[in-house]
Design goal:
Layout: E1 17-19, H1 21-40, H2 44-59, H3 65-78, E2 83-85, H4 87-108, H5 112-132, H6 136-151, E3 173-178, H7 183-194, E4 198-203, H8 208-213, E5 221-225, E6 231-234
Parallel strand pairs: 3-4
Antiparallel strand pairs: 1-2, 3-5, 5-6
Helix pairs in contact: 1-2, 1-3, 1-5, 2-4, 4-5, 4-6
Length: 236
C-alpha cells in the first residue's frame, strides 16, 4: 500500500509549486464565505475573506486556514495530488483579496448593491474553481504572463541561444523550461521522450535568469528548436 503521508514537496517551504487540490480547497472556503456575505450583506464577511487571503499571501501558507486544513487533514488521508506552478493560483488569490476588500468598503460606504455584486462574483468564480478546477484568476495570470512576454519580445521565444543550454543542440531538439517538483513538467518530458524527442531541460529554480530572459511565466513551457536555436514550434 502506498504511503499517503509521503510528500514530494514540502507545502510550507517549496513555495514555487503547490498541490493542485489545495487551491480548490481554499476556493471552496472563499466561495462559501463570500456567498454568505452576498446573501446577508454583512460587511465583515468579505473583509474576513480579504484579510485571510492577504495573510496567506504575505505571511505564507501557514496563515491560510483552508490551506493548513488541506495539508494537515486532507492530504495525509488521500495523498499528495499533482504539483503545479504556484504562481497562477497565487495571482488568483491576489485578485480575490482585492475584490473582496472593495466589496467590504462598498458595504461600509453605503453601496450595498456594489458590495453584494462583488461578493457574489467572487463566490461564483471561487465555487466554480472548487467544483471543476477551472480557475479564472489562474487563466488571467497565464494570459498576463503571455502578454508580458510578448512585450519583452520573448513571448513566442523566437530563438534559444545555444550558449544558454548545457549540452549542444541537434536538429529538432525540444527545450523545456521545467521545475523539479512540477508534475506536469515530468509528464510532458516523459511524453516527449517516449515520442523519441531529444529533450534539454532548463530548471527555472536553478536558472531564474533564463526564465526572465525568455519571458517564461509558467511551467512547463517547451519549444522545438533547430541546431542554431531557432524555434520551430511551441509545444507547451
Amino acid at each position: 500500500m502506498p504511503d499517503r503521508t509521503y510528500r514530494t514537496a514540502d507545502p510550507y517551504r517549496d513555495l514555487d509549486v503547490i498541490d493542485a487540490r489545495a487551491p480548490r480547497t481554499n476556493q471552496a472556503a472563499v466561495g462559501a464565505v463570500a456567498l454568505l456575505g452576498a446573501i446577508t450583506g454583512l460587511w465583515w464577511l468579505p473583509a474576513l475573506v480579504a484579510l485571510q487571503l492577504t495573510l496567506g499571501l504575505v505571511k505564507g501558507r501557514r496563515w491560510c486556514l483552508a490551506c493548513v486544513a488541506y495539508f494537515e487533514l486532507i492530504q495525509p488521508r488521500f495523498g499528495e495530488g499533482p504539483l503545479e506552478d504556484a504562481r497562477p493560483p497565487r495571482f488568483a488569490n491576489q485578485m480575490g483579496a482585492v475584490v473582496m476588500a472593495i466589496s467590504a468598503v462598498a458595504y461600509l460606504g453605503g453601496v450595498p448593491l456594489l458590495g453584494g455584486a462583488l461578493a457574489l462574483l467572487v463566490a461564483a468564480l471561487a465555487l466554480l474553481s472548487a467544483a471543476t478546477g477551472f480557475c479564472t484568476g489562474c487563466q488571467m495570470y497565464k494570459l498576463y504572463a503571455r502578454v508580458r512576454g510578448l512585450g519583452r519580445g520573448h513571448g513566442h521565444i523566437e530563438r534559444i541561444e545555444p550558449s544558454d543550454l548545457e549540452g549542444g543542440l541537434t536538429g529538432n531538439t525540444v527545450v523545456q523550461f521545467t521545475h523539479p517538483l512540477c508534475s506536469d513538467c515530468h509528464r510532458l518530458e516523459r511524453d516527449l521522450r517516449e515520442q523519441g524527442r531529444t529533450v534539454l531541460t532548463v530548471d527555472v529554480r536553478e536558472h531564474p535568469q533564463l526564465a526572465r530572459k525568455y519571458g517564461v511565466g509558467v511551467v512547463p513551457t517547451a519549444v522545438a528548436v533547430d541546431a542554431s536555436g531557432a524555434v520551430l514550434s511551441r509545444l507547451a
